[in-house]
Every structure is written in C-alpha cells, then in structure tokens.
C-alpha cells in the first residue's frame, strides 16, 4: 500500500434485507475500490430471498467480506448500528445494498476528510438498470457543508450512503436514537464537534426503484397508512427539538441556548411563545434554513410562518 494510505483502515458497513436483485453489483463496486477497504461488514436483517446465499458466496471467496445474520428483524437503522459496532476500522463508510460506488469513492473521501469527523459527497441518480437519470442529488436537494448545529433545526440532506467518518464519531453516536434517522444523527453529532465537509463530485450511483427504503423522493412519498394529526406532528417536533437541545454539547453555548429557546417556544402557541419562536428563527434564519435553498425573502416568510405554527 502507498504510505500515504497506511492509516486508511476503512470498514465498509452494509445493511441488507431482501436485496438479491442489485446486491452483486454493489458488492463488486466496493471490492474494486482503488483504495481497498480493510473489511466489508454485512449484516442481514432476516432476508427471505437469495440475499444470504449471495453474501455467503462472496464471503467464501474473499476474506474481507464478513457476514452476520440477525435472528429477528431489527430495521435498517439498528442494522447499521450493529454493523458499525462490529467493525474494526478507524474510518467507516456506510453502504446501501442497491447502489453502485464510483471506483475512487473511498480514496477521494479519505483524501478530503482532513480534521473533520465526517465527509460526504454528491450522488448521481440512476434507474433500476443503473443508467443515468442525468440528475444529481444536488439538483433536487441543497447539499452543503455543515459548520453549526443550528443547521439541523428543521432537517438536512446528508445521505448516509455518501458518508465517510472516523471511529471516534461512531463512539460518540452509539447507541443510535429512535427519534431521528441514523445519517441525520451522525452528521449532527459530527457538526457539534467539527465542520462536516461536502464534496460536489458524485461518488455514488444512487439507484432509484420501487423498493427503495429511502430514495431521493422519500419526503414526497409519505406513509399513506397513517397520516399523523396536527397534534401528533407538533408533539413529534417538540420531542425532536428537546432531543437536539439535550444532545448538543454544553461547550456549544450559543447553539445550545438557541435550541433551548426553540424548545420553549414549541410548548404551545401562546402569544409570548409565538414571538419568541419568530425572533429566534429570524435571528438565525441563515443557519437554520441553510439547506433549504430559499431566497432572502423566502427565509423571512418562513420565519413569519413560524409565528403561526410549530414546525413539523
């Protein structure tokens, strides 16, 4: 190995569930990286198709492929948590079961991470056959670097399939909470300590198909089985904001105080809380709305909206 990459012991962690259709192409793209991973940890979540047979075939031929099979289904968030806990590398990359990695993905992210705890890249959208849809993730989501915990107040779009992060971040994040997605949690915690870097180059071919657990249009495809009431949405927002306030490190004094004010303003829609909510969002609108890609006027109008309702 080139001495430049002697410290690059990278664990790739993949969570699988009934992924036989696209699995081989993704594993091949990982094993063919120009900077080879030290191990490929794959945790299968009780697949009932041919996934396990495919995985075992790869493990029999390649010693870096290590397969673990759950006795009960635990869901993809906990599956990634388990895989990360089983990994041994000082850097970790997460992998979906149905994407394709550009050959230089790991090398490019490793070269770019520097002092940051986490770096992520753009992705190119492809169809079920792996053909380009001539659209990047950045064309539909505002992907940016993160340097303030306040950039997570109303959400972000930093997808886990494009991550490379350091072991020390994993140690801060496990166990994963249930209130937020695993990639949101990792990016939020990383930003609480050091800026998260973003590379505009698409390093993942992000496959769009009908069985995606998460896709580029996930937020437009809500669960139709249960449409939460306004009260449920507001309570979810309260719980989430309280969680962010509690987990934001004490040394981030200003940001923690902002989270505290938002928590207070979310308790009810009294006039006092409406004013507090508007003033807080207005003062920090450029950070809170950074990933929304809104115009200056749009950011002001969003703050006005927050006077009348709790964000959900």
Mean pLDDT: 93
Query: How many domains in all?
Result: 2
CATH architectural arrangement of the largest domain: Alpha-Beta Complex
What fold name goes in the CATH topology slot of the largest domain?
Spore Coat Polysaccharide Biosynthesis Protein SpsA, Chain A
Overall geometry comes to: globular
Q: Could you say which structural class the secondary elements and strand pairing correspond to? A: alpha/beta
- The name of the CATH superfamily of the largest domain reads Spore Coat Polysaccharide Biosynthesis Protein SpsA, Chain A
N-C termini distance: 49 Å
Beta-strand residue percentage: 15-25%
How many alpha or pi helices? 12
Rg from Cα: 20 Å
Major sheet: 9 strands, mixed
Task: Describe what this molecule looks like in 3D.
There is one protein chain. By secondary structure, the chain is an alpha/beta fold. The protein folds into two domains: 3-213, Spore Coat Polysaccharide Biosynthesis Protein SpsA, Chain A (Alpha-Beta Complex), CATH 3.90.550; 230-308, no CATH class. The chain is 39% helix and 17% strand. It is built from twelve helices and nine strands. It has helices at 23-31, 51-61, 76-86, 105-113, 137-140, 167-173, 182-191, 230-247, 253-265, 271-283, 285-288, 296-308; strands at 10-16, 39-44, 65-69, 91-95, 100-101, 118-126, 132-136, 163-166, 197-207. Strands 1, 2, 3, 4, 5, 6, 7, 8 and 9 form a nine-stranded mixed sheet that branches. A hairpin with a 5-residue loop joins strand 6 (118-126) and strand 7. Helix 8 (230-247) packs antiparallel against helix 9 (253-265), helix 9 (253-265) runs antiparallel to helix 10 and helix 10 (271-283) runs antiparallel to helix 12. It is globular, with a radius of gyration of 20 Å.
């Amino acid at each position: 190995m080139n001495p430049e990459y002697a410290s690059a012991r990278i664990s790739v962690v993949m969570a699988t569930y009934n992924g036989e259709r696209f699995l081989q192409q993704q594993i091949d793209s990982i094993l063919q990286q120009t900077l080879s991973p030290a191990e490929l940890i794959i945790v299968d979540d009780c697949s009932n198709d041919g996934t396990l047979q495919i995985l075992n075939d790869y493990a029999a031929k390649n010693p870096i492929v290590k397969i673990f099979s759950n006795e009960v289904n635990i869901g993809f968030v906990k599956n990634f948590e388990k895989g990360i806990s089983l990994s041994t590398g000082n850097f970790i990359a997460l992998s979906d079961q149905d994407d394709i990695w550009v050959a230089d993905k790991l090398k490019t992210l490793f070269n770019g991470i520097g002092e940051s705890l986490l770096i992520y890249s753009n992705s190119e959208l492809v169809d079920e056959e792996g053909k380009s849809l001539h659209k990047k993730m950045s064309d539909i989501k505002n992907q940016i670097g993160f340097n303030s915990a306040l950039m997570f107040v109303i959400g972000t779009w930093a997808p886990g399939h494009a991550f490379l992060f350091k072991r020390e971040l994993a140690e801060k994040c496990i166990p994963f909470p249930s209130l937020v997605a695993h990639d949101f949690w990792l990016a939020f915690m990383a930003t609480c300590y050091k800026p998260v870097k973003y590379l505009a180059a698409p390093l993942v071919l992000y496959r769009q198909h009908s069985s995606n657990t998460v896709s580029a249009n996930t937020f437009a495809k809500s669960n139709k089985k249960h449409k939460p009431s306004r009260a449920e949405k507001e309570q979810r927002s309260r719980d989430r904001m309280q969680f962010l306030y509690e987990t934001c490190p004490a040394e981030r004094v200003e940001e923690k105080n902002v989270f505290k004010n938002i928590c207070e303003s979310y308790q009810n829609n009294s006039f006092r809380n409406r004013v507090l909510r508007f003033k807080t969002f207005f003062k920090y609108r450029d950070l809170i709305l950074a990933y929304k890609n809104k115009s200056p006027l749009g950011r002001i109008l969003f703050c006005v909206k927050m006077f009348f309702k709790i964000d959900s």
